[in-house]
Amino acid sequence: MGKFRIEIKWAVIFALATLLWMVFEKSMGWHDVLIEKHAIYTNFFAIIAVAVYVLALLDKRKVDYNGKMSWKQGFISGIILSVIIALISPLTQYITSTLITPEYFTNIINFVVDSGKMDQEAAESYFNLKSYILQSLFGALTMGIVTSAIVAFFVKKQ
């Protein structure tokens, strides 16, 4: 585990940033009165996510590689970070859905059904804790790996 201490540290930071972002979204009304804005504004979390990856790989380069890191080393570190984030994501999604914004699923289901975007059955099968846990897990892996490849390119140093 000591070999991955930096990735673990930054995965925990990522999880905390995610939870803080969910509190922010809820406080902005994007989970209830302004729910129609949620699909747009939630994407701004990508800025925070990329920043965490940059800081994580810079930390890895400084601490574990004495200031020098190849793209491959950064990419592998980013993949490890992504896997750990993905493993933590069911917990962060559970906390979000049960403690931070327990009414979100009801609100989003009502919104998409009332606006004619989905029927009730489709909305209920998509907007629920199990579905969101799976989406967060696979999303963390896919977006994390892509982000890792790009960030590793910019933080490499020979």
Mean pLDDT across all amino acids: 97
Overall number of strands? 0
Cα end-to-end separation: 26 Å
Query: What global shape is seen?
Result: elongated
Helical fraction equals: over 70%
Structural class: mainly alpha
The major pleated sheet works out as: none
Q: Uncertain spans, ≥5 residues at pLDDT below 50?
A: none
Summarize the structure in words:
By secondary structure, this protein is mainly alpha-helical. It has 7 helices and no strands. α1 packs across α4. The model has no long low-confidence stretch (mean pLDDT 97).
Briefly say what this structure is.
With 158 residues, the protein is mainly α.
Element layout with pairings:
Layout: H1 5-27, H2 38-41, H3 45-64, H4 71-100, H5 104-114, H6 120-126, H7 129-155
Structure characteristics:
158 residues, mainly alpha
